Amino acid sequence: MAASFDGGHNWTISSAPFSRCTGGSPANGGDFDRATDPWLAASPDGAIYALSLSFSGGTLQPGSSSAVLVARSVDGGTTWGPPATLIRDGDQFSNDKDSITADPGDAHFVYAVWDRLTTTNEGPAWFARTIDGGATWEAARAIFNPGPGNQTLGSLIAVLPNGQLVNVFTEIDVAAGGTVTTSLRAIRSTDRGASWSAPVTLAAVQASGTFDPQTGANVRDGSDLASLATDPTGTLYVVWQDSRFSGGAPDGIALSRSIDGGLTWTTPVRVNSRVDAAAFTPTVHVRDDGVIGVSYYDLRNNTSDPATLLTDYWLAMSVDGTTFTESHVSGPFDLDRAPNADGLFLGDYEALVSVGAEFRPFFVRTTAAGTGNPTDVYMAFGPAP
Q: Is 139 exposed, middle or buried (0-12, 13-18, 19+ CB in 10 A)?
């Protein structure tokens, strides 16, 4: 993790004991080979919560184990306390795609959610919460199960101004004949996570995925994941990767919003300006003044050279959630230099925050050739309309 106390100009690196690489041990629950899927949340009392998916072995392989761990910092992320274990499983289960959200109005409440895959081919959404500011965590439990053969993915919780919760996730369903359908769905809680509603569907996900147009190389993008934000009035915004605006390919960036706490959602609108260029892995954030920001990658500046895959990072802004003004953040950089992990990979998620009237995109891009370090994390000082 990294912390800045001057608006992003300087950074201090730290780590929590989520694996043996960073001081984890049987004594503190962090005795795992690896830690991944980090997520941070800031509570209104100044506490910072870090969430980790920690694991050993391969997914659902004999002898494997996985856990969702959370650590707390009271000095702005400079140092971390011992992790609390929200769930720990052996090789019959695999936890994935965790996220954590602190209630911005009440420091007692922090919520963690993830999907839990089973060897019996199910993937329900699981949930844990603290109601005492991280002193203790309630036992983790399933809050939605799509049934045998189906799974949830990428759950994200938003807290509305009245304290109610909305969890948005991707649901992947497999019919008897093998047909796969993917949709974005939402469940609601009016009692801070004690109980949850039946799901409603936001939209079908029609992502086709991103590929190098010259070589066909796969880009491991965010085509099965969404990003969620809420504004000061409680309006919810969801963005995701979708090909509906181009007739099936390439993917663009879709946005839908809800003004009634997630009960109903608007028809998706296109965020990215270039319908002819693949856009992928979007992130949404709303400033305190209600201006919406959506960041994403695209391939508009790629060339016909098969040796490179030129990629840029963009920020689109809107005051009404319908029309967007686009600004260039970074690039072009060569995505072909990225690590290949079932595809050229920059990360499942990127981040977007704001400081006053200025957006701050956080993203990964490749570095110069021959450095031995293929990617780094960057922060940009975004424009303020």
A: exposed
